[in-house]
Write a structure and sequence with these properties.
This protein is of the alpha/beta class. The chain is built from 7 helices and 7 strands; from the N terminus they run βαβαβαβαβαβααβ. Belongs to the short-chain dehydrogenases/reductases (SDR) family.
Amino acid sequence: MTTTNSSCALEPQDTNHPSSSQDLSTLPAPDHSWQVTLAGKVIAITGANQGIGLGLAEVCLANNAAHVYSLDISTPSTPFTTLATKNPSKLTFIHTDVTSESSVSAALDRIVADQSRFDGLIANAGATKHQPALDFTLDQVKRLFDLNVFGAWICATAAARMFIKLRSKGSIVFTASMTSYRPNRAAPSAPYGGTKAALRNMTHTLAMEWAEHGIRVNSISPGFVKTALTYYVEKSPDWETKMKYYGGMPRLALPQELGGAYVYLLSDTATYTTGIDIPVAGVVGAW
């Protein structure tokens, strides 16, 4: 007696039949390179004059990005100038207020005018303030949301519009945080965690909406990262005790240690990766 197995693999479709034709418009070309590289790509990073953003710029350049733009409201730091000197004509600062739609649009227009292309955006600019929830004023909370959430929204939507205009299958990467998953016991901040949780949620929804344009949207959630704003954390007298309860690697990460995940998401190797968050946290905070 002949039996059938409903769980067996599907039969190959007849792609010559009109009803089974496939839309390959979002798939890579036959000669697509599967090397993880940013060769030829023009990348914009918000808040890259210092801190995590600058570390990401360094890693992007090390992975052959054609040009990296820092969209920042602050004055370039000495390390930024040093990195620009090491990468002549490949790292440029554009004074940009990420909370202003006109400022962000002008910055992206300049990038396209200079480079005739635009491939990826890292929405990284942000701020934090660590203190008990009842010590926050409403104005302080609004300021965090204005920069961390609304600023990221303005940058992502402006980038998406530009990608669509250029017919470029661009990539957008938000810098979220492990505090979007769980409280930061070492330095609590309910408003900051709320802003980063908003970014992770936007990642999923924007990825769904913009997939039809070939635009990918993902996020990275760093753990403790050593910057000018956080260096004091591991100098706390109870640092070792806190790390005992956190678990994971008992140290702060260098900003550059986050870069590999960003490079992957910006690269053409990740053409089917969208709507996800990648924790880069040394297992800090894992339950």
